[in-house]
Amino acid sequence: LRVSSRTGATKDMGKMLGGEEEKDPDAQKKEEERQEALRQQEEERKAKHARMEAEREKVRQQIRDKYGLKKKEEKEAEEKAALEQPCEGSLTRPKKAIPAGCGDEEEEEEESILDTVLKYLPGPLQDMFKK
């Protein structure tokens, strides 16, 4: 009895591990039908979602028209165009548009302010700062 029960168990283990199973003659046909049904369900689901999204987009567009809003893509396109064409005297123009020599003036002004302050300090303090 024990030997026969072991062989039955090993037969089942072989099936679980991917061994030879009893072949159903219609198994291939059933599998193809199942795959086709899954494909149809997926296509129906995608079509349903596309319809729902189209309806949502229609409602979004009505809201945009009502309140004068723009799509995100339109906003980004306008912002890029604005950056590419900076206005004369704009406060937000790119750094490379600043003429050469404009940024150097700040350091000179700071030095002249320091010199002016030194003039008004008493003599011993002036000597300390000059060293």
List keywords for this structure.
mainly alpha; 71% helix; 0% strand; nucleus; coiled coil; neurotransmitter transport
Number of strands: 0
Please, what is the average pLDDT? 75
First-last Cα distance: 108 Å
Beta fraction: under 5%
GO molecular function: syntaxin binding
Protein name: Complexin-2
GO biological process, one term: regulation of neurotransmitter secretion
Keywords: Cell projection, Coiled coil, Cytoplasm, Exocytosis, Neurotransmitter transport, Nucleus, Synapse, Transport
Detailed description of the structure:
With 131 residues, the protein is mainly alpha-helical. It has a domain at 26-85. 71% of the residues lie in helices and 0% in strands. The longest helix has 41 residues, at 27-67. The protein is elongated, with a radius of gyration of 41 Å. It starts with a helix and ends with a helix. It comes from Asarcornis scutulata. Belongs to the complexin/synaphin family. Binds to the SNARE core complex containing SNAP25, VAMP2 and STX1A.
Short description:
Residues 12-82 have a biased composition (Basic and acidic residues). The chain has five helices and no strands.
Secondary-structure blueprint:
Blueprint: H1 2-16, H2 27-67, H3 72-84, H4 105-120, H5 123-130
Biased composition (Basic and acidic residues): 12-82
Region (Disordered): 1-113
GO cellular component, one term: cytosol
